[in-house]
Amino acid sequence: MTDDPIQLKMLRLRFAADEATGERVLAVLKKLGMLRDVRVLKRDEGSSVLWVDPADGSGGALVLKVRALGVGDRIKRTLRCGRGDRQRRGATALAGARVGCAPVLAIASVMVDGCIGELLAMPALAGRTLLECLRDLDGSPVAEQHALAHEVGRTVGAILDAGLFNRDHKPSNVMVHAGGVGVSLSVLDTVAIRRVRDREDALERMLASLVIEPIGCGVQARHGLMMRALRGAMPAASRAARHAMWRRVVDRVRAHGDPGPKVDPLSGGGAG
Asked: What pTM, to 2 d.p., does this model score?
């Protein structure tokens, strides 16, 4: 367990994917302070992300997202529009569109460090974040780089084709599975999934998010790979249309200002 444990007290299970899943999450929470294999992936003011392996053969490791709730957050939760409910709805929407994502297994009301809070339980997905993969591109086979770029674009296109838009489509929020030319992706944090109003604007914004975060972490975008991603996202578009979109993306990135993150995900600050 971490040297600075998070004090959790279970209040009520608000949602579970099924009865067995709910019982499993409750069992993990009851013995959280006694588990050895618990890691803090991210800790910010009022929120934490934990990786937990119960080591009991009950279904693999879990990611627990815990956050204290202010008055406004509690009102939103009562109206079913809090972060936990939005995360679950976003994951359900992506799954319905056959886009990989981390499903919400359970949502619970908890006391966290003495404050009323909310806990989300999700499976720990295997792989590396897209941000980590972009950082380590040097030395990887060209065919694998091309396959990754294409899949990044194809996933963006699949989200848009379903009438959806991810407002937080940054590389640290995308998990890369397997590797080589058989790569696949999953969206980790689905709280920012929305319905598309303007497809071109949504495409521009999602592609810009894929560029801005790496720049802020010292990882420069590669024009050739971005154009492959554009081909994946816009398979029926002309070369001129793809280049026009890329210019829009570049303009948005330049207008963004300082791209530096509050917590660098590559320094151990966590994903999502």
From this structure: 0.89
pLDDT value of position 268: 62
- What structural domains and CATH numbers belong to the chain? 8-123 (3.30.200), 128-262 (1.10.510.10)
Instruction: Pick the more confident residue, 142 or 33.
Output: 142
* Span 54-98, pLDDT tens digits: 766 666 899 999 999 999 999 999 888 999 999 999 999 999 999
Q: What are phi and psi of 187, to 5 degrees?
A: -85, 130
Q: Which of 131, 137, 156, 267 is nearest to 211 (CA)?
A: 131
Residue 262: count of CB within 10 angstroms of its CB: 8
* CA dist 20 → 24, 87, 138, 153, 196 (Å): 6, 21, 44, 37, 35
Q: Which amino acid is at 64?
A: L
